[in-house]
Amino acid sequence: MTISSLALSEQVADRLAPYIGQFNARMWVKSAARRELGLLPEDLRTEHVAALMDGLRTALSTLMGRAAADDLLLQIRREVS
């Protein structure tokens, strides 16, 4: 399966996994999707990426610092949008 054929939530989780682990990445994406957008992860579309990144920012900033988190989220946003 290629990256482009993966669900958007899986694409984001795969990019977060090296930093927080695969399980945590999936749970963070699931939580942010529900909290910020009221959606299940499988219902995420490219138009939801900005809000999803905003939903992940606080927790990720706590873990790795604001600048590093912002850089990572910008990279993820470019890659999956």
List keywords for this structure.
about 80 residues, single chain, globular, mainly alpha
Overall description:
This protein has 81 residues and is mainly alpha-helical. It has one domain (3-80). Helix content is 74%, strand content 0%. The chain has helices at 8-20, 22-37, 49-64, 66-80. α1 (8-20) runs antiparallel to α4 and α3 runs antiparallel to α4. The radius of gyration is 11 Å and the shape is globular. It starts with 7 loop residues before the first helix and ends with a helix. The mean pLDDT is 93.
How is the topology of this model organized?
Blueprint (H helix, E strand, L loop, with lengths): L7 H13 L1 H16 L11 H16 L1 H15 L1
Distance between the termini: 18 Å
Number of strands: 0
Gyration radius from CA atoms, angstroms = 11 Å
State the assembly state of the protein chains. Answer: single chain
User: What is the domain total for the residues?
Assistant: 1
Mind describing the biggest β-sheet?
Answer: none
pLDDT < 50 runs, ≥5 residues: none
What is the general shape?
globular
Can you give the mean pLDDT? 93
Helix content: over 70%
Proportion of residues in β-strands? under 5%
The sequence of SSEs as H and E is HHHH
Number of helices: 4
Which secondary-structure class do the elements indicate? Answer: mainly alpha
